[in-house]
Amino acid sequence: MDECLAIMFIGASPPSPADFKRTPLLMRHAVVLSALRWLKLKHIEYSDVVISLNNLYEYPADVPPVYVMYQPGDGEAPAPAQSVHEEDQECGSKDGLCLFIVHGLTGADLAHMSHHAKIATALHYFENGGKVVGLDRGSDPTFIYHNPALFPRMFPWLFSYGLGGFENNKLRTGLSRTAHQKHSLLYNDRRFQMDPHFAFMIFNHEQIRASTKGGYLLTERQHFNDVVGKLLNIDTDTL
């Protein structure tokens, strides 16, 4: 996990165990074990998974399971990061819990930056020792075409037992991919509607499939003359 994830605290003092308890960064053994058992019981893709309690309880429960880096700060916020209501550069609290402040680029910043400005900012970040998150993938890519297991793998909490994916051969009646998607969005419990990513992923995949099909039709050179002839000879009145 340390190869792809790290936690950075910025503040006047290093984080304490009390600070860690206020963050969602701790390994809750009972929750993880319950989730693994649920997946093993409810999802066909996890049926052969062997749960190792020894490995699970090797993760500490009071500190994050990945590397924690602390960057000391002087409590002063740079002028560009201040709001219009701030009168000085001091940013802190005299009493109560001290909040950590992380400075970085937000969507609003990126919207007004040119392409060259983004490159310059990225180079400045790396030259000052900045790091990035790298997520590995399997040796074989997952296809979005004729892959009934694709959406059950991405959304195991929506597809019971890992079944019911689109374009699967277990359907007894003819149902197109589009009709199946609409049917899912009309479920009585509305779990497909309420999920924040499901509809977006469907829309994204349909755009990819439509553009790929369009590109395929355009590049079929052997049919070019026939298509042009039909377009030139089309009956405009009928159209």
TrEMBL record:
Stored Pfam families: DUF6570
Stretches assigned to the DUF6570 domain: 1-56
Protein name listed in UniProt: DUF6570 domain-containing protein
Native organism: Obba rivulosa
UniProt lineage: Eukaryota, Fungi, Dikarya, Basidiomycota, Agaricomycotina
